[in-house]
Amino acid sequence: MVVTAVLNPYDRALFLSVCTKRRFLSPLNWTTPFHGVGQTIVSRSLSTGLYFPLEEVGRTVAHEAGLPDGSAACSIVAGNFAGAVNALLLSPLAAVKYRSWGDLSNPENKSVAQAAVATYERGGLRAFFTGFSATVARDMAFGAVFAWLRRELRRQFLHTDTRAGAFAADAVAAGCAAIVSSPFNYARNRQFAKQAADHHPVPTVLQSLAYFWIQFQARPTPYARLKYAQTRLMIGWGTLRVAGGMGLGQLVYAALCAAPVV
């Protein structure tokens, strides 16, 4: 919850930069940095809090199904499981959060209940599952890469008997996983942005990816294409947020698991 609250301005600025196609560091993205923080704390803290124990459960299930414990296949299955369950459980909360963030005409910070009512009034039950398919695809891709790569990094390259080594391994793995899953995150952000702008049809994942590819190909030079991809997929600022957030989240989770029960 602390990490979520501290990073809410960062998350909101990322979302608004996608919605409005502004530079991430534009002051307009930071004018109301804690708008929607209530919805964010609920969804983000649940998402981060659920991921690591779900990964452990997925690893246990994969091992009992016959996969060697600690193998690449076991880690990938565990990450897929954690990502899929997270997406299934938290998509409605994400829809409420992004509806609140995208409502630029009303800068007041609504409660979760108020934002949920507004979401229902504007789109019915379907509005709570905006971005669902993109979220599942994104979280499964992210979970598979993150769970596998962090274990490989810890084993082969880093001294993980220190907190700094563990944080470095997890942050690098999360950054790579964010890049791999970034096309699905782009599609998800476009869906939420269109939902926030009323009277605009919400594109499917394939439509969003096709739109990205057309815009990518339309750039006149290789540099312009790379720049467009980096900006739209949030490779940079977005990657840094995910890497730091997951690395810190794992440190806190491990510390709390190791803490004595009073």
TrEMBL record:
Signal peptide: none annotated. One of its GO terms (cellular component) is membrane. Belongs to the mitochondrial carrier (TC 2.A.29) family. GO terms for biological process: glycine import into mitochondrion. Its main location: membrane. It comes from Chrysophaeum taylorii. GO terms for molecular function: glycine transmembrane transporter activity. This is Mitochondrial carrier protein. InterPro entries: MCP_dom_sf, MCP_transmembrane.
